[in-house]
Amino acid sequence: MSSRITLKLFDMKNKEQIIQQKLKFGIAAALVADAATLGLHWVYNQNEIKQLIASDRNNSVSPLFHTPLANKFYTHRNGQLSVYGEELLPMFDSLLEDQADHVLSNKDILFKRYYDYFSAYPSRLNKMTKHFVQSVRDDNKSYADSVMVDAQANGFIKIPFLYGRYYNHALPHTKMNEIVDFYVSSIQLGNETLVASQLASKIYYQLLHNDPNRTLKNLVIGMEKNTMTTTNAERILLKNALELSNKGSNNNTQVTDDAIFLKSCFKVGLSCALPHSFVVALAISMKYEYDLISALSANCIVGGDNCSRSMLIAGFVALREVDHGMTNNKNTKKLNSKINQLLLKCDDTIHSYIHRFNTFIDHNYKNVDSGSRTVSHL
After folding, report:
1. CB-CB neighbours of 20 under 10 Å
2. In this predicted model, what pLDDT tens digit does every residue of 111-146 receive, in sequence order?
3. In the list 80, 140, 165, 248, which could disulfide-bond 261, CB 3.0-4.6 Å?
4. pLDDT at residue 353 above 60?
5. For residue 25, what is the enclosing H or E element?
């Protein structure tokens, strides 16, 4: 029997139920976004991306689930998670087990799980994971001494999933120190990974509780001005993202506006390195905050390491779409439809983890009606 799932409409009667559904939508959107972006991952030339879209085997004008995969490093099939999504799977398994707190607080356990997983990984490892495996296996270094010094997006991509696990236990950004830097460290680089991850966590938390009529941009503007709760390093990231999101917004046509914005993202930087990976991700989220498909499509066309950005973008935009749907239609029908369209093209691994996270949320959030479900088995 297939493990595939579909998201169903949910009758949300109170704030806690809305938050519960936001947690689920954020996780589902993040996973399908990574898979949907895989076809155009690691292409840094925007003109080449446009040519690839025009030559898609499925005659699709959408950049999502591009066929065939443009990057020859991949041995994946369309519909699978990228290397960024797949590197999270040991963390997912750890988050969803009964002893999650013990495992996440004991780096040796988590190190071994990641080492075992990466050592058997059948596709191309990114440079951080490759360095980690080679240092342990070939240089006989300890796990801790095999951590690479770098500052990349591998921290903030975890946010939707940490909230799914820890929302009603403790603020997830308190868990960041335990899991962000366990096989890559940015301590020598001013802790950029932790700064970006904790800022993403603060924004996500605010979106879970946000006034539905308050835009993401207005939320970011408020945070950037708040010197009491936002650090100087965080404010710089917010300021840069706000400036980028405004590029092209000069009463142009939508086509011209999008073109100016996408080129501006290119100039900021397209790799997974910080700070620009976070800045571009947040700017795209603000620009297309009411339309998940448009946000993911724009992120694909921006190019570069778009998979690493896609999970945070999808999490932010999904939460805003819940607000928008509840304000205008009193339901999440449109968002359901968008995610289910993407889910149809995703492999069973993605369906399985969405189901596992949803089941965990249903069973552990006591303030929510336990009879309500968003998942059905097919």
Report:
1. 26
2. 899 899 999 998 888 788 888 899 999 999 998 888
3. 248
4. yes
5. helix 15-37
Nearest residue to 125 via CA among 91, 87, 81, 69: 87
Is 307 within a domain? yes
**H/E stretch holding 148:** strand 148-149
225-284 tens-digit pLDDT = 999 999 999 999 999 999 999 997 766 677 778 889 988 998 998 988 889 999 999 999
273 is a domain residue = yes
More confident residue, 206 or 373: 206
Domain that holds residue 162: 15-368
H/E stretch holding 7: strand 5-7
The count of other CB atoms within 10 Å of the CB of residue 233 is 16
Overall number of domains in the chain: 1
Tokens read off for 179: 């899991």
Rounded Cα distance, 259 and 245, in Å: 12
Query: Is residue 281 included in any domain, yes or no?
Result: yes
Neighbours of 148 (CB within 10 A): 16
In degrees and rounded to multiples of 5, residue 77 shows phi and psi of -100, 155
List own/partner pairs for 52-60 with CB under 8 A and 24 or more apart: 53/301
Residue 340: Cβ within 10 Å count: 15
DSSP state string for 270-336: -SSBTTHHHHHHHHHHHHTTT-HHHHHHHHHHH-BSHHHHHHHHHHHHHHHHHHHHHHHTSS-HHHH
Q: How far is CA 205 from the centre of its chain?
A: 14
CATH number for the domain spanning 359: value is 1.10.4080.10
Separation between Cα atoms, residue 108 and residue 155, nearest integer Å: 19
DSSP label at residue 341:
H
Beta-bridge partners for 184:
148
CA distance 233 to 199: 9
Q: What is the pTM of this model?
A: 0.91
Rounded Cα gap, residues 151 and 181, in angstroms: 9
Angstrom distance (rounded) from CA 95 to CA 42 = 29
**Does residue 1 fall inside a structural domain?**
no
Using CA atoms, how far residue 40 sits from 68, 86, 142, in Å, is 9, 17, 36
End-to-end CA distance of the chain: 8
